[in-house]
Amino acid sequence: MERIQKILARGGIASRRAAEELIVSGRVRVNGRVVTELGAKADERRDRIEVDGKRVVAENLVYAILHKPRGVVSTMSDPEGRPTVRELLARIGARVYPVGRLDFATSGVLLITNDGEFADALLHPRKSVPKTYVVKVKGAMSDADLDVWRKGVRLEDGMTQPADLRLLRHEGDKTWFELTIREGRNQQIRRMGEATGFPVMRLARLSFAGVDGEGLPPASSVSSRATSS
């Protein structure tokens, strides 16, 4: 017997947190009975578990790397009608979703899965998962400027944590560097650029949690599957 939200997360229905919201809102039934208690348990091999009237069937777990191109929203839908990763993920042939997100103008590695527990673990703030980017900013940054980014930049929501930074090159009044952060703040790197007077011109994520997309062309993906127990 396991908690229902854990079963839903493992089955690719939703992340653990989203599964809890499904339960609390009365959208989950076990053997025909509505379940709203987060501590409720079930046996996925014996019990009939339904979400919105549809039976939950254990799926093979899928793990994929997508090279998200610029100009694509890293969500499955967009109210503004912009291109989304949904179209790029159709070829995987399973119900999957992104782990976290990259903003519209940022390209690079985006992990994809239907394993809610895996996604929750990577996104939990206490995990301090490393994310590495190549950054191009406007302005010729000095060693002192680079050290500010390394030590922490004051933003409206507080100081950023120390980061690893490696200078790549200067191109006239432009600076390229590699940056590794361990936070998940919204548009953190672009805001760091604005706060220090070096606006970000290009931003691409090289790796997430040690997983890189080296050799993976934009808009393409590579995936693997594990049999659900």
Automatic annotation (TrEMBL):
EC no. given is 5.4.99.-
RNA-binding S4 domain mapped to chain residues? 2-62
Identify one Pfam family in the record: PseudoU_synth_2
Write out the entry's keywords from A to Z.
Answer: Isomerase, RNA-binding
Q: Which GO terms describe its cellular component?
A: cytosol
InterPro entries reported for this sequence: PsdUridine_s_RsuA/RluB/E/F_cat, PsdUridine_synth_cat_dom_sf, PsdUridine_synth_RsuA/RluA, PsdUridine_synth_RsuA/RluB/E/F, PsdUridine_synth_RsuA/RluB_CS, RsuA_PseudoU_synthase, S4_RNA-bd, S4_RNA-bd_sf
CDD domains assigned = PseudoU_synth_RsuA_like, S4
Which biological process terms from the Gene Ontology are attached to this UniProt entry? Answer: enzyme-directed rRNA pseudouridine synthesis
Spell out the molecular function terms from Gene Ontology. RNA binding; rRNA pseudouridine synthase activity
| Family membership noted in the UniProt record | Belongs to the pseudouridine synthase RsuA family.
Protein name per the record = Pseudouridine synthase
